[in-house]
Amino acid sequence: MSNPELDVVEFLLTTAVYNGDRDLDEDDLPPAYRQVFWTDGRIERPLSATGQTAADATDVDRPWDAVGDLMFTQRDDFSGDIEFTDQELAEEWFLDRADEDRIRANPALAAAYGEEFDVSHEAAREVNRPARADRAWIDSLLEEYFDEEEEEEMLDLVDIRAPEEVEMTMDDLVLTPDQEGEIHKIVKAIEHRDYLAQIGLREIGKLLFVGPPGTGKTSVARALAHDLELPFVEVKLSMITSQYLGETAKNVDKSFEVARRLAPCIFFMDEFDFVAKTRSSDEHAAIKRAVNTLLKSIDDISLIDDDVLLIGATNHPDQLDAAAWRRFDEIVNFPKPDRSMRSDILQVVTRDMEIIDFDPDTLAEITEGLTGSDLRLVLREAVLSALTEERTTLTQQDLEDAVADFEERDNLKNLDMIDGDADALVAGGDISGAGNDESHDHSHDGEAHDHSHD
Ligand SMILES: Nc1ncnc2c1ncn2[C@@H]1O[C@H](COP(=O)(O)OP(=O)(O)O)[C@@H](O)[C@H]1O
Ligand SMILES: [Mg+2]
């Protein structure tokens, strides 16, 4: 049902309306339009509608062919600009053909013509993804901050994702009541930042997630970014050591700068125990400097003043010293899931699967001690082994078998850790892939890292 003529006129009209109304900002442009106008983290007026921008924004291959016959359009052959000869006529033509849905998806037009369609400007803004959620915006911002060489170094250290690129959502996660409470509090704090600033309550917005590997710490942080539509900035602390040493402190500094520019955003620091480790050991001076820069940056940044929500995560709370603890104002505990939680997790992760005689409670009973991540691995094994028999429908038995396999493999893994004699294990039989598990699951690399250190 695409209508190239109408699509292109909508684009032209939007640029005209946007250029003419200074009260409109980036959030008033539909994401597809914005993406063609970002430069250095800004969208500058006037927006120019050319054959190229119109094509990129509307997905109409030859915009001029689509609207050239209309009596109110003209093209400047030299610049490629497409313009209205008579904006009033263009408005009339467009408003005759547009419907309510089209206006609701375009806040700039809702501001100008919403009344006729019973669509308020606010309503349109609300359904339109905010500009900070655009990958194109983030890229243009990074370009401004880092030259190409620097950017490569930086990308080792920080990973920046637009909320549109985060796949995890809160609906995919099973939380403890305590976790739910903490998350709810922080969501409210974000909503009411202005009020908190006004009453001078600033010690808020630095969370530390604590718990064994695979309990959902990284996932919850990402899901928050997704659900709150905030960019997600992740610093890989262990990469501090692998950086070109002289530059590390500078890059840490810059990553906070980037977070400030991206704000409101979530700044996530995985493997936070690394900080404590570095402080106590006799590391290279440059690394110590980087870690100190990091701690100072943490002190300086604030949810209330900078709109940055800081989340640290650690699998080894015992390694944190008082100085590290003190920097967080809420500690969120991520325990291994209890029986009812395991049952819930199993139901969530099998949501889109067909399983005959599925009995999550029984599975929960035989999976004592397994984390959410373990349960996912169990599921994956069950799915893969059913596939070897060309089956895409699983049975409860498949799952129970996979649990047994998992436990067996887990035992071998523990042996490996106690004896440190991997050769003996390989000779022992079918454990192929046991050591590779983590490398398949991107969200799992925190754990892989742990094993190499233990
Ligand atoms: N409570 C949970 N509910 C649903 N899935 C979970 C839960 N805990 C862990 N998982 C799953 O396990 C995997 C690893 O979790 P992750 O967030 O990386 O754990 P952590 O960061 O604590 O090591 C993810 O795919 C995640 O979806
Ligand atoms: Mg993690």
From TrEMBL:
SMART domains: AAA. It comes from the Archaea. InterPro entries: 26S_Proteasome_ATPase, AAA+_ATPase, AAA_lid_3, ATPase_AAA_core, ATPase_AAA_CS, P-loop_NTPase. Keywords: ATP-binding, Nucleotide-binding. The keyword Transcription does not apply. It holds the Pfam family AAA_lid_3. Belongs to the AAA ATPase family. This is ATP-binding protein. It comes from Halorientalis brevis.
